[in-house]
Amino acid sequence: MKKARPERSRWVYLDYAATTPLDPRVLEVMMPYMKEKFGNPSSVHSWGRKAREAVELARKQVADNLGCRTSEIYFTGTTTTSDNLAIQGVARAAKKAGQGNHLITSSIEHHGVLDTCQALRREGFKLTVLPVDKYGLVDPKDVEKAIDDKTVLVTIMDANNEVGTIEPIKEISQITKRKGALLHTDAAAAVDYLDVNVKNLGVDLMTIGAHKFGGPKGVGVLYVKKGVEIEPLTFGGHHERGLWPGTEAPALIVGIAEALEIATQERKEAVEKVTRLRDRLIKGVLTKVSDSQLTGHPAKRLPDIASFVIKGVEGEAILLMLSDKGIAASSGSACTSGTLEPSHVLTAMGIPAEKAHGSLRFSLGKSTTQEDIDYVIRVLPGIIEKLRKMAPKGI
Amino acid sequence: MADLYPSLYSKKVMEHIRHPRNLGEIKNPDGMATVGNPVCGDIMRLFLKIEKKKGKEYIKDIKFQTLGCGAAIATSSMITTMVKGKPLSQAEKITRKTIANELGGLPASKLHCSVLATDALKKAIEDYRKKRK
């Protein structure tokens, strides 16, 4: 008899904040546009018309779910593309019109936002990077103080992808409105769980990316409120009204629209289910792993993020051992960033580097089960103990 | 690609992470050193037992303890296997490059971990020589 290979007892994917699996319902609506409905939406013949119809119906679907007009929706490449387009596009348009040169952002933004702002700073724009408190919260009063008559854009994320903290975007939007600055938010981490209606949030520009909520990789949306002046970054055609030229990808576009529709419909249910599992995981880790600490806000946090710093261990080593047990997670430790520096989010929250090295983030999804969570709670303490035993004593 | 992404560790590196060799400590070591890389936060400690045979000094036993990422653990483990039983003169010739090669390569961003291992060995040997004086 053939000897059976030792099997992992489970496969547990808890890295949904990195990317989500493609929802089979989304794949189904995408498939025709990868096969027989392959036309270029710009062509006048029936192949083209079918593709154009799909793209414009998808635009309507996205607009309905975000609470805006179809003419305010632009399909782009990724979340990062949308961030770049929003920030650089608005900054350049304002500069051209002589309307100011000052940008405001926070210290815990995704690199898509932070690096774009820094690049503009090097070009001569003024940049204010706001601090956050120990929970990763931006204080709206800091936004108010930072805005001056040269401020063209404030860009603050809707919710943080590493520690889950939800930012007070509605309050900030009231300030930017009053002060006459535009507000952009990167809501990439929020779509499955938070209200992303642009009117409710009060934002002027908003970024989302499909693969964070069950859609395909390689497509994002940028909402640009009517009347906002914005310049394109690339050139080459009329597509997306010249803001993001290049042949549209109908399969990806119908994919993001369907994923957004599903996310909106299932949001309430997802929040309840995922929050309960997240809290079970947080409680389990904090009680079973000594010297572990929750990062991010205890209450104002995304339902899917359970993030920790664990003393006396290094994040990447934990991830490798978890992976051997079939569990996927992530870390903001220096060794996982590729830059030799721990996560800028954790350091901005005042977590010292030696603590940040032991960072560990689980991000749950709609298909996460209680068995998955209990398995992690069973396996993790042994891994931490093993790694701590490997470490030099008394350091 | 392995140059860019630490997730693409070689099989040999993974093998040493899963089953570190010579892990632990030696009571009353002849030489010992603790080195740390403040940039990355890795800390490594090496213990040596030295014996003399025909006037030559050999590494009779070696153990390590490491707090660090996968590459730090693997390079620590690897260097112990490379020098155990070897004359000191030979052990001293080990460079970060030879460790990385033995491991089937390291991602570029992880090369500094192999520096940590060679540093620890160098300092532990120095410690042994100082104690003998």
At a glance:
By secondary structure, chain A is α/β, with parallel strands linked by helices. Helix content of chain A is 42%, strand content 13%. Chain B has a single domain (11-132), classed as Sufe protein. Chain: A (Alpha-Beta Complex).
Summarize the structure in words.
The complex is a heterodimer of chains A (395) and B (133). Chain A is an alpha/beta fold and 395 residues long. Chain A has 13 helices and twelve strands. A seven-stranded mixed beta sheet of chain A has the order 2-8-7-6-5-3-4, with helices on both faces. A three-stranded antiparallel beta sheet of chain A has the order 9-10-12. In chain A, strand 6, helix 7 and strand 7 form a beta-alpha-beta unit. In chain A, helix 1 packs antiparallel against helix 8 and helix 3 packs parallel to helix 4. The longest helix of chain A has 39 residues. By secondary structure, chain B is of the alpha+beta class. Chain B has a single domain, classed as Sufe protein. Chain: A, CATH 3.90.1010. In chain B, a hairpin with a 2-residue loop joins strand 2 and strand 3. The model of chain B has no long low-confidence stretch (mean pLDDT 90).
The overall average pLDDT of chain A, rounded, is 95
Number of strands of chain A: 12
The appropriate CATH architecture of chain B is Alpha-Beta Complex
Order of strands side by side in the largest beta sheet of chain A? 2-8-7-6-5-3-4
Counted up, domains of chain A total 2
Percent helix of chain A: 40-55%
Oligomer: heterodimer
Query: How would the global form of chain B be characterised?
Result: globular
